[in-house]
Amino acid sequence: MTTRDTARSQSASQAAQAPHAASVAGTVGATSANATAADDDIEILDIARKEDTDERRGRRWFKRFSGRPFPGWLYAFLFILFDLAAVATLQWGVSLKSTRVKLSSPTVGWGFVTKMWTDGNFVLVLNALLLGLIYLILLMLTNRFWIATPVFLAAAIIVAVIEHFKVQIRYEAVLPSDLNFLKADKSNLLSFMPPGAHWTIIGACAVFVGVLIVCFLLYRMDGRSGRLLRFDNVGLNVTVRLLLILLPGMFFTLYSMQVSTVGSWAKTFATVMGDKPSMWDSVYDAQRNGPLVSFTRQLNPRIMEKPANYSEATMKKLAAKYAKEATTINELRSANMTDSTVIYVLSESFSDPSRVPGLKVNKDSMPNIRKIKSGTTSGLMLSSGYGGGTANLEYMGLTGMSMANFDSSLSSPYQQLVPSEHWVPTINQMWGAAKFSEAFHPYESSMYSRATNYVKFGFSHFYTLTGDGEGNDIIKYQDKIDESPYVSDEATYKSALEEIAKTDDNQFIQIITMQNHMPYNDWYKDNDFTAESTDPSQPLEKDETKSIETYQKGASLTDEATAAFLEELDKLDKPVTVVFYGDHLPGIYETASADTNNSLALHLTDYFIWSNEASSSQGEKIDNAAYSSPNFFVAQAAEHMDAKVSPYLAFLTEMHAKISAMEPPVVNTIQGWDRIPEGQNIYLDADGNPMAESDFDDETKQLLADYKLIQYDITAGKNYLKDSGFMDLP
């Protein structure tokens, strides 16, 4: 075989072997590919098995608990825990400290936890009980613990945020009257959002999400899924749930309806638990007693007893009677009250220290006012308060109504009555449009709910330190004297004088000063006033002496500022009449107040009615002025000005002729807001002597009965007098 043949044979052999090699290679490649795919499947299977194992582990973790229904004691513990969480949430809503209101502090509210064992005060428990009743009702409505709980806490968070916003904007807690606002002005709710409100809302939402997560986790752990009642008998299940809805609901309703009524079981219960009403400041009240306790106390105040003969026919007859009396009075008068500017000055705590029993002072604190009183209508005013109660005197002065006619449960009309009234006739309304009524008070506008009440009274401006919350109506002059924390009377008068002088219109002006407000802590430099006991065997304590001497200096500064104010009013070329009065004595006379025989002396302040040179009544002195109370001031001012009267003012004129002054029972302690003190109403005759109702003649008894009819109709009745012309001047 040749070499060429050999090569050909090898080539053929290789060609013949190529398909086999390709087949083997293909087999090997396929085997390798199959092996790789198998490995991938195994890996996927392993991962799936791992995930399945993890899921089973998770299930087993939950099943450790979900297979075991929560015991009753655990539900009870969680109920109390979430209930207290709601209390804390609401408390946060009002825990915003004001830089202006010195009497308020958020620590007061949080302190009610510790005061359970330090003071025996259980107002925390009372709040928890009331909220717990609401919580229980929700639980029974749903029969699902893990549904009712987030709903309950969500409601608490929402209310707390609303409280927080209102306190931040207006320094006022949520009041029952706000429910009327929601009905009437829903569209303006967004305007009450303070700056940065979105952060508060985001925070609240975050907290609620946290609540949902906790509730969901506990739900997954709970073998009974939060189902509280699991009776096999459907009828028994429904019956128990209805009972646990109705009974707590009845208790809460009855408590809310009666807690503001003196002598009721609810009032007694709340007092025993530690409720201490602080009606002058709604935020402080909510901080001190809890928002829910404070709120329910104002839901249904008992205003006054309905007169037996109250009816539309009776009120029409009464209106006609005093319309006739007004006609008789007006035949002898020539002026119109609204042809003058009338200024009411409520001088905080102003009174004469030299009249305090057992007290000796080195010099007169009010020589200027004493001189003014000697030349015009003036006298002593019977006050319902001692050391407090300003708003009640203010209310009587503006309305002509008497605290003596109200039920003892109504301790603060500004808080308990005015916000819910549909008709609030006040004397400034005689001047017509709101633009003719302005008020000045150099302090927090929300105190005693004045900010909202003065709008309701018909005042166009209420100038205060805080204004209307939008930068308007800020009182212009805010000067203080030495170390005193309060705006001086001189500055307050200056602010008012500028507004009065800038218009030729006749107005009604209300001024409420603050300079002499408690405390009296040696504020003034170069104070040369001294005070001591008239009985050497009973010397004054050091703190009492310091307070009295500080107060004396403050009263003397008021005396000077008031005289200067009247001098400026004399320069105006329009008639002006001023009604000036001290609302109550300062609560600093510990020695004198210890003797109950001093009660009347410690409830008499100074007042005068003065007219400027542009008035025809300057220097006028009316009869029966030696003693009065603020409800009679408007009738006395009309007589002083020789002004014609409405049927209402005619009635007050007749009433004052028979009873010079009237107030509810008084005590020698700083005004409290729990109730009007127990005892008999105080009635003084023209000489300042107390009178007993049993000794009244028939005419006086009838006038007093008419007074109660009038006051009931306006404050608690059907307002039959509203369209009768009873309040209209001729």
UniProtKB/TrEMBL annotation:
Biased composition (Low complexity): 8-23
Pfam families: Sulfatase
Pathway assigned in UniProt: Cell wall biogenesis; lipoteichoic acid biosynthesis
Superkingdom of source: Bacteria
Residue span(s) of domain Sulfatase N-terminal: 341-642
Transmembrane segments: 73-94, 120-138, 145-162, 197-219, 240-257
Keyword Flavoprotein: no
Keyword line: Membrane, Transmembrane, Transmembrane helix
CDD domains from the UniProt entry: LTA_synthase
Region (Disordered): 1-23
UniProt protein name: LTA synthase family protein
Record organism: Bifidobacterium miconis
Lineage, top ranks: Bacteria, Bacillati, Actinomycetota, Actinomycetes, Bifidobacteriales
